[in-house]
Design brief:
123 residues; mainly alpha
């Protein structure tokens, strides 16, 4: 049985793997923020609709409470993702010779991974 630590084939340079992980991590962080914004908008719309239509003051209260629980879950997920980010930063330092800075967002968004692989192989 071959474990990860004993794997000797290198299908991809570390620099390319690092860029791919960083790109996907930044996208995941942005998606969580977007979900929180949309949930906040939904909460505002729900309360505004209740007020604007003149229905009973506590109509839909259970739905509002569930939405707030959903928002709390998103905040908790964001905290866990921050821990993932921190651990990945530590791994980058351990495996990439001290590269503890996150790649610039422009590099992550515009990278041609095939080109990055070629550059890495040539180095």
């Amino acid at each position: 049985m071959t474990g990860f630590a004993t794997q000797t084939t290198q299908d991809m340079p570390l620099s390319v793997a690092q860029l791919r992980i960083a790109r996907d991590l930044h996208q995941a962080e942005a998606a969580l923020d977007e979900a929180l914004v949309r949930q906040a908008q939904l909460l505002q719309t729900m309360v505004g609709a209740r007020r604007g239509t003149g229905v009973a003051p506590f109509l839909g209260q259970e739905a509002l409470m569930r939405l707030v629980k959903s928002q709390q879950a998103m905040l908790d997920a964001g905290g866990e993702l921050a821990r993932v980010h921190g651990r990945l930063s530590t791994i980058a330092v351990e495996t990439c010779g001290g590269n503890d800075a996150c790649p610039p967002a422009a590099l992550l968004e515009g990278i041609d991974l095939a080109e990055a692989a070629e550059v890495s192989r040539a180095a």
